[in-house]
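Bench log. Compound arrived from synthesis this morning; before running ITC I wanted a structural hypothesis for how adenosine-5'-triphosphate sits in the protein. Inputs:
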Amino acid sequence: MRNLLEVQNLEKQFSSQKAVDNISFSLEEGSIFGLLGPNGAGKTTLIRMITGIFYPDSGSIQFDGRPFSAENDIINIGYMPEERGLYKKMKIGEHALYLAQLKGLSRSDAMKAVKEWFEKLEMQSWWNKKVEDLSKGMSQKLQFVTTVLHRPKLIILDEPFSGLDPVNANLIKDEIYDLAKTGSTIIFSTHRMEQVEEICDHIILVNKGQKILDGTVNNIKQEFKENIFKVGVNTTAQNLMTPDFTVIKHNPDNLLLKLTEGVSNNDVLKFFINQGLSINSFNEVLPSLNQIFIKLVNDTPQARQFTA
Ligand SMILES: Nc1ncnc2c1ncn2[C@@H]1O[C@H](COP(=O)(O)OP(=O)(O)OP(=O)(O)O)[C@@H](O)[C@H]1O
């Protein structure tokens, strides 16, 4: 797979603070990429450079095999920012048509695309309602549709599920998978780790302007794993005296164990078998992205301070 986007050594400074400090990463075409980081980390600033809203102080951006040019490439990028702007007095159908035409679709193509998306997301009955009459979740759906309906090569979604109920969040999630399957590349910016684990192929974690983690969700979890296993077995504490592991938690029908360095899974299994116990399950427990995020971010001083 080729890269749709390659960002090299990007820097952006605001007064005395580096909002983005020497960040590089690349994005494979058709992938779903998670841009993560605590408040003030520099995510929005990074996105604003990728979408041509800000010029970087230094570094380079390659888009679709060429140096990024806001003028030419913006039509190929759909950006749904966290702070969203819609014209409140406009009718919803007209609004979607208007935005689709701004993105370069002819009136008839725009009409076709809007109808198709309104149908997919069960929004047909909204056509003649006014934007100001939409609930938060409904306007979120409208924003999503207007971001993706011209099928841009790169789609950037900032907290796309905020305000959505679980049914609508699932609808949007399925559409995100579909868009990626049909060739769009997605950047997904969020603090919600459980969504990232489920959706993203690749993530980077940014903290205080710097990239502190870059990899696939699975590789990152492997890198941070701590030799913890869950064993489905029914036993009493007296049976568990061994140098092979320590018991982290003793539940009624399972144990959470931390294996001693150098001890293999088979050693542990043998230990239980030798005790005549029957084992119902045996699984490695990988850390959640949330645990990894908190560990890494807590290892550096918390949120940034403003400098005078
Ligand atoms: N236009 C600006 N002028 C001055 N400082 C700015 C500007 N935009 C952002 N910053 C500063 O740059 C840093 C990064 O901000 P940014 O908005 O990129 O973070 P973020 O990761 O998107 O945060 P959040 O998750 O809270 O939206 C912050 O310290 C912020 O105060």
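What the model suggests: The mean pLDDT is 90. The longest helix spans residues 166-181.
ITC booked for Thursday regardless.
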